[in-house]
Design brief:
This is C2 domain-containing protein. It comes from Allacma fusca. Keywords: Calcium, Metal-binding, Signal. This protein is mostly beta strands. About 15% of the residues lie in helices and about 45% in strands. The chain has one domain (about 20-134): C2 domain (Immunoglobulin-like, Sandwich), CATH 2.60.40.150. A hairpin with a 4-residue loop joins strand 7 (about 120-125) and strand 8. The chain is elongated.
Length: about 130
């Protein structure tokens, strides 16, 4: 009886069609983290959920020099399975010689992202990250 339940669960998960999601990130009013210059921002993107243990590094944007209003060209792609608790975690950094500074981070649910027209707006302590369909 248990084996049947396991196979049913596996079959059900496999039969759920994954949808490819692509997005880009924009930054608005990002804070100056240094006294000398404005922020040189970039974002590291992590993924969790859908039976992935822990967080998986998805990629990072390029960094943009002296730009509190950054528009990154990097396109992130992943498979979305509705109702699978997939989460995207964004970590905003300031590129510096030596050690880069973590400025802020925020997360959003892919279910919410899809339900809101493939857009997520994340307000950090200072500044905003906007994720939109690519």
């Amino acid at each position: 009886m248990q084996a049947s339940l396991v196979w049913f669960t596996i079959f059900t998960l496999m039969s759920v069609a994954a949808e490819r999601v692509q997005f880009r990130i924009t930054g608005r009013n990002l804070p100056d983290s240094d006294v000398i210059h404005t922020i040189d921002p970039y974002v590291r993107v992590y993924y969790s959920g859908n039976n992935v243990p822990g967080e998986k590094f998805l990629g990072k944007t390029e960094y943009v020099f002296n730009s509190p209003n950054a528009q990154w060209n990097t396109i992130f792609t992943l498979n979305y399975v509705p109702g699978s608790n997939q989460t995207i975690n964004l970590k905003l950094y300031d590129k510096d010689p030596g050690l880069d500074n973590l400025i802020g981070q925020s997360s959003f649910s892919l279910d919410d992202y899809k339900n809101k027209g493939e857009k997520a707006v994340m307000h950090l302590d200072a500044g905003t990250l906007i994720v939109k369909k690519a």
